[in-house]
Design goal:
Elements: H1 4-18, H2 28-42, H3 49-58, H4 73-84, H5 89-101, H6 116-127, H7 131-144, H8 162-167, H9 172-178, H10 190-214
The chain binds adenosine-5'-diphosphate (ADP) and nickel (II) ion (NI).
Adenosine-5'-diphosphate binds near residues 25, 63, 125 and 172.
Protein name: HD domain-containing protein
Pfam families: HD
Length: about 220
C-alpha cells in the first residue's frame, strides 16, 4: 500500500501525461494552480486533504467541452486511475462526484452532490477563472474559439440558456459580465470568498482601463 504522498506524486505524473497538448487555459498549469489553491483553502476549512488533492488534480482530465459534451469520460478515467492506485471505494466515489459536479450549472437542485471537499475544489477552480489569470484565460479561450476581443454592437446577455452559452460566440469582453464578475458572489467557503475579493477588484480595474484605451463607453451600464 502506498502512502498518501506517493499517491499524490503518481497522480501528478498521470495528470501531466493526460494533459499533454491541452489548450492553454486547461493545461497542467491550470491544474497546478487549482491544486495549490485547494490546499491553501482546505488548510482553513474542515476537509479531507487526500480527497481535496485528488479532486483538484483529476478535475479536468477529460473536459466534456473537448469531448463532444460527453460528461462521463472524466470520472471514468479518474476511477480507472484511482483503482490502479488501490484507493478505497469511498474515496473513488467522492472524487468522481467532485469531477461530475464541480462545474454543475443546474442551479438549485436538491439532488446535486455537495461536500466540503467539493466546495473547496470548486472555489479554487472559480478563483482561477478571475483576477489576472482569469483575464489571460478568457482571452486565450476566446482566441482558441476565434472570437472577437470586443464588439460595441453586441451587448452581454446575462440570461442565456445553457445551450446558448455553450454555442454562443459573444466577444470575449462580454464573458466578464456573463460569468467572471458574478463568481465572487458564488464562492462556497469564507477563505475562497476573501481570496476572490482582490481578484474581482483587479478585473474591475482592468475593465476601466480597457474602456479608456478602446475609446468605448462601458459595454454594460451598471
Ligand atoms: P471550468 O474550469 O469550470 O471548466 P470553463 O471550462 O467554462 O470552466 O472555463 C475555462 C476557462 O475558459 C475559464 O477561465 C473561462 O473564463 C474561460 N471561458 C469559458 N468560456 C468562455 C467564453 N465564452 N469566453 C471567454 N472565456 C471563456
Ligand atoms: Ni478547471
Amino acid at each position: 500500500m502506498q502512502n498518501n504522498q506517493e499517491i499524490i506524486d503518481a497522480t501528478v505524473a498521470y495528470v501531466k501525461t493526460s494533459l499533454e497538448g491541452a489548450e492553454g487555459g486547461h493545461d497542467w498549469w491550470h491544474i497546478y494552480r487549482v491544486w495549490q489553491l485547494s490546499r491553501q483553502i482546505a488548510a482553513h476549512e474542515t476537509a479531507d486533504m487526500l480527497v481535496v488533492e485528488l479532486g483538484a488534480l483529476l478535475h479536468d482530465i477529460a473536459d466534456s467541452k473537448f469531448h463532444n459534451g460527453d460528461e462521463s469520460i472524466g470520472p471514468a478515467r479518474a476511477r480507472a486511475f484511482m483503482e490502479s492506485q488501490g484507493l478505497s471505494e469511498a474515496v473513488i466515489v467522492h472524487v468522481e462526484n467532485i469531477i461530475r459536479y464541480i462545474s454543475f450549472k443546474g442551479g438549485h437542485n436538491d439532488n446535486a452532490f455537495r461536500s466540503p471537499e467539493l466546495s473547496v475544489v470548486q472555489d479554487a477552480d472559480r478563483l482561477d477563472a478571475i483576477g489576472a489569470i482569469g483575464v489571460a484565460r478568457a482571452f486565450n479561450y476566446g482566441g482558441f474559439k476565434n472570437r472577437a476581443i470586443y464588439d460595441p454592437a453586441i451587448k452581454p446577455n446575462m440570461n442565456m440558456t445553457r445551450e446558448e452559452y455553450k454555442n454562443g460566440a459573444s466577444p470575449t469582453i462580454n464573458h466578464f459580465y456573463e460569468k467572471l464578475l458574478l463568481l465572487k458572489d458564488r464562492m462556497n467557503t469564507p477563505t475562497g470568498k476573501a481570496m476572490a475579493a482582490e481578484r474581482h477588484r483587479f478585473m474591475e480595474a482592468f475593465l476601466e482601463q480597457f474602456y479608456k484605451e478602446t475609446m468605448m463607453d462601458r459595454i454594460f451600464a451598471d
